[in-house]
Amino acid sequence: MPFDSATLTRRHLGNRRTLVAAGVFLAAAVSFAYVQLAPGNVQPTMAGLRLGARFLARAFSPALTYEAEVPEWTAPLIWKALVAAHTTAIFAAAAISGALVGGTVLSFLASSAWWAADPAMPRRRIGRCGSIAIWFSARVVIAFLRSIHELLWAVVLLAAFGRGQLTAVLALMIPYTGVLAKVFSEMIDEAPRESAIALREAGASPIQIFFVGLLPRAFPDMLAYAFYRFECAVRSSAILGFFGFPTLGYYISASFDNMLFGEVWTYLYVLFAMVVLLDWWSGSLRRRFAA
Amino acid sequence: MTTIERAIVLERLEAERPRNTFLRWSLAAFALLVAHAWWFGDFHLSDFTSERHLENLYRFAHELIPAPLQGQPWSWSVALAWCATLMTTKGWPALATTAAISISAIVLAGCAAAGLALPATRTFASPEPYLPHSRASGRRAWILWAMTVAVTRAFLIFLRAVPEYVWAFLLIAVVGPTPWAAVLALAIHNTGILGKLNAEAIENLDAQTLAALRALGAARRHIAVVGIVPAVIPRALLFLFYRWETCVREATVLGMLGIVSIGYYVQDARARQQYDVMLALILLSGAIVLIGDLLSAAAREAVRRSD
């Protein structure tokens, strides 16, 4: 093979990866132009910059007590932050528990292994067309659930049901069901098939093959992913506070609107602590357990 | 094998199965937390099922039908005309802005992360990259490099620990409700994530090639340009597209803070109680997220196959 520069350049330019990279930069140029993202167009006012500087400066001195006058009987700031963190965790835990149930069921229906699209697996009694129909509709339901952001679900559910705490849980639960179902079904489909095939050779029934041969192989990854999603749910739950639910986001936005930046950092650090703790938890589960 | 033998074998297998204490404690703790949540959370099913709420729900469901069709017999032509007007007045601009915000943000994040990944890489940011430390380089150089890595990593953690929505909320106060606020918010958060992922990818590169470069006398910048960048680009592109999917999803809602992505139009329709418009726009946001997922999957496949 000749290694002159012309050949190399041609080979390099024809490369799919180069095309993708070029596409990215072209898309970026068009996007920058569309939203008029020229550096000159960002004109922070002096007041805005001063606000930003004051806010960032408080990162090193979060408030330990209230920064504004509060009625005498108000609970201490730290206590309030911890209560908000507790509510945040409760919403997330309730939502993820529901999403785990719904997501697992949906993921069975949406996994091609379950419906035997794979020739290595036994065909189900329901027949080819019926199984494809169920598989496909499960995929459509999953796509619908997960593609709409939890905050948009919150907007719809708030309008439909009002500001009950169950509304927040439901708003988190719906998209997380979709995401868990999608990823679980992929994990089931990608799990090693040897034991499933061996079970089939030995004459096991489809149900036995699925639950004994296939599911246990995917289970570690599914569990680790579920914990990771719990961490995401905590973050989303905190953000839901911006819509008036009593989670950390509510207090962050309230304190920020009153320019009490030290308090904002207190709440933010409580959120960091939760996220870092959960990150450590799900990370060590992955390291010790998952493939 | 007799039945008894089989029972013994099964029993031994059962006794010898791998156990994981950490996993057991984790599952128990999680189960407790969930039980606690449902038990002590202030959740009332009556929020959904009481008479008043059902009445509200019924009225709300009625208002989800396109306005010209409420109380009228269904007609496809009216519905399509309604959709067409909605798309030209709000739909297309909202979609275009959302896409543009997400693309701008992820490219900015990719560039920033490329710069921050190298100083966050333990193998590269050391006195003698990829070679055993020599005493000659000294303790001070070693401490300086270790500090560089620690500070960069802490900075990246800080960037990604604050959620996008909170960054946008803060940035709007500083730069005003322009697309810059949304783009910067997404870019900042994703710089933190991409920087970490890229640094890990660089640490996982085959160290022998890079050590050979260093042994031949290549300077640090030569190793970076010739050895690291070409080898890590495929992974970096995969991460970029993977994060872009999330960016599209987040870009849809950042509009609710007053920037002109699709969330802005949703919030606007909600404020005017035009629930039909609101629902249509929310479905549209779902569509653009799905399209983003498909594009990203196709691009990642192309990157993977060109290896």
Largest sheet of chain B: none
| Number of strand segments of chain A | 0
Order of helices and strands of chain A: HHHHHHHHHHH
Distance from first to last alpha carbon of chain A:
41 Å
Number of strands of chain B: 0
Task: Assign the structural class of chain A, choosing from mainly alpha, mainly beta, alpha/beta, alpha+beta, or little secondary structure.
Answer: mainly alpha
Span between N and C termini of chain B?
A: 51 Å
Please report which band the strand proportion of chain B falls in: under 5%, 5-15%, 15-25%, 25-35%, 35-45% or over 45%. under 5%
What do you see in this structure?
- The complex is a heterodimer of chains A (291) and B (307).
- Chain A is an all-alpha fold.
- Chain A is built from 11 helices and no strands.
- Chain A has helices at residues 5-14, 16-34, 46-57, 77-110, 128-147, 150-161, 165-190, 194-201, 206-240, 248-257, 261-289.
- Chain B has 12 helices and no strands.
- The radius of gyration of chain B is 27 Å and the shape is extended.
- The longest helix of chain B has 42 residues, at 76-117.
- Chain B has 307 residues and is mainly alpha-helical.
- In chain B, helix 10 (220-254) runs antiparallel to helix 12.
- At the A-B interface, helix 2, helix 3, helix 4, helix 5 and helix 6 of A face helix 2, helix 4, helix 5, helix 7 and helix 8 of B.
Notable traits:
heterodimer; A: mainly alpha; 11 helices; globular; B: 307 residues; mainly alpha; 12 helices
Blueprint of the fold:
The complex is a heterodimer of chains A (291) and B (307).
Chain A: H1 5-14, H2 16-34, H3 46-57, H4 77-110, H5 128-147, H6 150-161, H7 165-190, H8 194-201, H9 206-240, H10 248-257, H11 261-289
Helix pairs in contact in A: 4-5, 4-7, 4-9, 4-11, 5-7, 6-7, 7-9, 8-9, 9-11, 10-11
Chain B: H1 3-16, H2 21-40, H3 46-49, H4 51-63, H5 76-117, H6 138-161, H7 164-175, H8 179-203, H9 207-215, H10 220-254, H11 262-271, H12 275-305
Helix pairs in contact in B: 5-8, 5-10, 5-11, 5-12, 6-8, 7-8, 8-10, 9-10, 10-12, 11-12
